[in-house]
Specification:
Length: about 230
């Protein structure tokens, strides 16, 4: 039954996404705030399909730790699932993502118009400067800046080092970091056709205040985020 539901969900997900990308392409010429309405419409459709076809729902805990206005969200990345939820949770986040995604036909255009923060992993100093410029614009606009500290999706139970990008943002922007733990990989595994029914939990942890020494911040972030994630994943 799980296989059948997964097949139906994957078909609906990719089919709906393709149709929306082409039919709503006119939205790219709207002001960015109005274009985001189309993005939210698409994401709500995906949420409906998750609940009613794949049997996946979600809950959010610790919202009281997320301040109004700009902050840095350091999110675990286990699955494609959370990439479909960031706009629904935060409204208008600015997400740090690899520059190559902007080159995807049509899809990349939506990412560019959404005001994401691209980073060229091969660009070194210039790439870091470009990322910081975009991050400053997002912070001034009061947007949540979302970064995956490990830089890629990490399977449940696997360990990957934390990259230096989170350190650069923390030191440059002087904003609090809100760790975001989750267990999406237990229901929507990385690169897996099967989607397991159940309730995904997103948990925000206590803020890490700005101004801490680099090593102290990284030790606290990794310890608290990994501990909470392991607890959620059982």
């Amino acid at each position: 039954m799980t296989g059948l539901r997964s097949f139906a969900f994957n078909l609906a997900l990719y089919g709906t996404t393709a149709v929306m990308c082409f039919l709503m392409i006119w939205a790219l010429f709207l002001p960015r705030e109005k274009m985001l309405w189309v993005v939210h419409l698409w994401l709500r459709q995906i949420g409906w399909m998750e609940r009613n076809i794949a049997g996946i729902s979600y809950r959010v805990e610790g919202r009281e730790y997320v301040p109004e206005g700009a902050c840095i969200i350091a999110a675990k990345h286990q699955s494609a699932w959370e990439t479909f939820k960031l706009h629904l949770i935060f409204g208008d986040p600015s997400i740090v993502l690899k520059k190559e995604l902007l080159s995807i036909p049509i899809w990349g255009w939506y990412l560019q118009r959404s005001g994401m923060i691209p980073i060229d992993r091969k660009g070194r100093a210039r790439a870091l400067a470009t990322m910081m410029e975009a991050a400053h614009r997002a912070a001034i606009a009061g947007r949540k800046i979302v970064i995956f500290p490990q830089g890629t999706r990490v399977e449940v139970g696997k360990d990957m080092p934390y990259k230096s990008g989170i350190v650069g943002l923390y030191q440059e922007l002087n904003l609090p970091i809100i760790p975001m733990a989750l267990n999406s990989g237990a229901f929507w595994p990385k690169n897996s056709f099967l989607k397991k029914p159940g309730t995904i939990t997103v948990e925000f942890l206590r803020p890490i205040p700005p101004g801490l020494p680099r090593e102290q911040m990284m030790t606290r972030l990794r310890s608290e985020l990994e501990t909470a994630t392991n607890r959620l994943c059982g």
